[in-house]
Specification:
The complex is a heterodimer of chains A (about 325) and B (about 350). With about 325 residues, chain A is of the alpha/beta class. Chain A is built from 12 helices and 14 strands. In chain A, helix 7 links the parallel strand 6 and strand 7. Chain B contains 13 helices and 7 strands. The chains are: A alpha/beta (about 325), B alpha/beta (about 350).
Chain lengths: ~325, ~350
């Protein structure tokens, strides 16, 4: 049976199911219990699992992320809630120096099975410290896995896989998608890491998109279809591990690619994926690989400015048309 | 035991434990083990220092010599189930928690037989079998880990206690205040053991620490103690009491242990007159050495003779020398090992992160 539920509900179900399955799983973070987080994603969990397994913490991000690392090293499986992705900067030592390196530095003796769930995404009129998409920061660090769900279905399956993983996993939800509904089976399912999802097959151009940018790419693909352009849409699902083969194979077929991600364009996910395409599909390309990311400015508050900073379906479709027409876009 | 030396640390002490507590360990076997463990740490460090000075060891290391009574006094109050987290100056904690010379020297020399297969080195030895969750090269970096281990114990209804070792320098890290707050709120079985050796790297502690360290813990409602960290019996007596109480839900606790590091910040910090006088160093070494003073006490109590003490020193020194010789001849990890152990359940990380090899369950 499949019903339509929100992304928020999908995350809630995934966590509840895993907490029922495994008593070692617990949740901690700011306002995760009675408040169920500001986005209400975790609402009701404290009623079922009690305050010992759904733990409200003080506003001490490095402290509770560090504690999750220690708990994970000693037989627990913490899910840490970081209220905004922007707070990643506060926890970098605990996440990148401790969680990410413990297994390696101990020669495989110690493991850190923990999930850090947080969010990304602009256009919520929250200004520069509550709107960032910082997944590239953690994807850069060996020892961390990074998942980027793009729908309710994806969010549930990836979260369950993350919770069962023996390693630190950072999972980014788009905070603008919490109320978006999608068909989600009632039966249990998991989505493996490192297996990209081809949402739409096409012949002329490949759109590789992450998280909420998958919707942007899908809308662009629909617009392009009206113009007679056939676009393939690929959601990598996880950045670490990255299903490089599926992306490369697609571009070898279509000969053109646009990579769309909501992180800043400079030194980020789009550059990484574009360079892999360039390395492995170079002789199949008919047009330079295009990158579309968040504008390289702090996210502005004013709606008039903020909306200029993120890729839109129209901009993606226009870039795709230029690519298919072979127009030189930004020649210096 | 020895008189207070010139070094001062900021502020008052609460519940100061007085002198050697003769009743701490009620039998000779325990005294002998504590003595041997302290001698083992000193012997290990002497060899490690020589390895550095003779350019046989890659990188550098931080000597624990002088602080032996802290690690031994505390770890002798712990079981293998009890956890510790350690610091960049962590060899003493490792030995005191039960680690073996051979695997430790192999680790210092980057050999495959090391505790971490040569991937951690001097600053990252972890010994899971004895409850050592690892040394940490970020000052204060393990405070969250130790507190989280204590949270685990509480959530799982297990009765292990975690001791978080750190130096006076680490008390300047904000993380400590965050986790002390949570440990106190949730009554976690963790003991914060601050080894105050008087120096935060190359700076006197009194220049970096305002007020009193014990008062900082007390501000969170945490029971705080000060103890002479050169007196292994005093440390052990206090540790036994606090570990037992923490095990029964009365934690957390804070202990400030007044101690001294004989070497510089690291083995290469040799010309250090600009921040620490030779007179001060001599005062601690000659009058407050934890091993010499405990040896004298054992002699005075008729537990060991002067000859016994010499024999123990010789035996352990020979053991350390033999472990060094072994480690110098031990093999390095194979090149193929370089991307192993990045992820649990994944043989080699490089093909895995590019999607060309599947991990366990993912």
């Amino acid at each position: 049976m499949t019903r339509e539920i929100t992304l928020s509900k999908a995350v809630n179900e995934a966590i509840a199911e895993e907490m029922r399955r495994d008593p070692a799983v617990f949740l901690m973070g700011e306002d995760v219990a009675e408040a169920g987080t500001p986005f209400k994603v975790l609402a009701g969990l404290v009623d079922e699992f009690g305050p010992d397994r759904v733990i409200d913490t003080p506003i001490s991000e490095p402290g509770f992320v560090g504690m999750a690392v220690g708990a994970a090293m000693t037989g627990s499986r913490p899910i840490v809630d970081l209220m905004f992705g922007d707070f990643l900067y506060l926890v970098m030592d605990q996440l990148c120096n401790q969680a990410a390196k413990t297994h390696y530095m101990s020669g495989g003796k110690l493991t850190v099975p923990m999930v850090l769930r947080t969010n990304l995404g602009a256009t919520r009129r929250s200004a520069a410290q509550h709107s960032q998409s910082l997944h590239a920061l953690v994807a850069h660090i060996p020892g961390l896995k990074v998942a980027m769900p793009s729908s309710a279905y994806e969010a549930k399956g990836l979260m369950k896989t993350a919770i069962r993983d023996e390693n630190p996993v950072v999972i980014f939800e788009d905070k603008l998608m919490y109320q978006d509904k999608a068909p989600v089976p009632e039966e249990e399912y998991l989505i493996p890491f490192g297996a990209a999802n081809v949402l739409r097959e096409g012949r002329d151009i490949t759109l590789v998109a992450t998280s909420s940018m998958v919707q942007v790419a899908q809308k662009a693909a629909e617009a392009l279809q009206a113009d007679g352009i056939s676009a393939e849409v690929i959601d990598p699902r996880t950045l670490v591990p990255l299903d490089e083969a599926t992306i490369v194979e697609s571009v070898r077929k279509t000969s053109r690619a646009i990579v769309i991600d909501e992180g800043h364009r400079n030194f980020g996910v789009t550059g990484e994926i574009a360079s892999r395409i360039a390395e492995k599909a170079f002789y199949h390309l008919d047009y330079p690989v295009q990158r579309m990311g968040a504008m390289d400015v702090p996210v502005p508050f004013s709606p008039a400015l903020e909306d200029l900073t993120v890729p839109t379906p129209e901009a993606v479709a226009e870039a795709a048309r230029r690519a298919v027409r072979g127009e030189v876009a930004d020649a210096a | 035991m020895a008189a207070q030396a010139a070094k001062k640390t900021g502020g008052s002490r609460s519940r100061k434990t007085q002198g050697a507590a003769k009743a701490a360990k009620a039998n000779t076997e325990d005294y002998l083990r504590m003595y041997r463990q302290m001698v083992k740490i000193r012997a290990f460090e002497d060899q490690a220092n020589q390895l550095y000075l003779s350019a046989k060891m890659p990188g550098l290391t931080h000597m624990y010599s002088g602080q032996e009574a802290v690690a031994v006094g505390i770890c002798e109050a712990l079981t293998d189930e009890d956890r510790i987290t350690s610091t960049h100056r962590g060899h003493g904690h490792c030995v005191a928690k039960g680690a073996e010379f051979r695997q430790m020297f192999c680790e210092l020399l980057g050999r495959e037989e090391g505790y971490c297969r040569g991937k951690g080195g001097s600053m990252h030895i972890a010994d899971q079998a004895h409850g050592n969750l690892g040394a940490n090269a970020i000052v204060g970096g393990s405070m969250g880990i130790a507190t989280g281990a204590a949270l685990s114990a509480k959530l799982q209804g297990r009765d292990f206690v975690t001791v978080c070792f750190f130096g006076d320098g680490a008390t300047a890290q904000g993380l400590w205040y965050e986790v002390m707050n949570m440990a106190a709120l949730w009554k976690l079985p963790v003991i914060y053991a601050c080894e105050n050796n008087g120096y935060s790297e190359y700076t006197k502690t009194e220049e970096i620490a305002a007020g009193s360290l014990t008062a900082r813990a007390e501000a969170f409602g945490i029971e705080a103690h000060g103890v002479d960290g050169q007196d292994v019996l005093a440390v052990n007596e206090l540790a036994q009491r606090l570990v037992e109480r923490a095990r029964h839900g009365e934690g957390p606790f804070f202990v400030e242990l007044d101690t001294y590091r004989y070497h510089g910040h690291h083995v290469g910090d040799i010309n250090r007159d600009y921040y620490r006088s030779k007179d001060e160093e001599a005062e601690w070494k000659e009058r407050r050495d934890p091993i010499v003073n405990f040896g004298k006490w054992l002699e005075a109590e008729g537990i060991l003779s002067a000859d016994d003490l010499v024999a123990i020193g010789d035996e352990i020194r020979a053991e350390a020398e033999s472990a060094v010789a072994y480690a110098l001849n031990a093999g390095y990890p194979e090149a193929g090992e370089v991307d192993m152990h990045v992820f649990a359940g994944v043989d080699h990380a490089l093909p895995y992160i590019d999607g060309y090899a599947k991990g366990a369950g993912a």
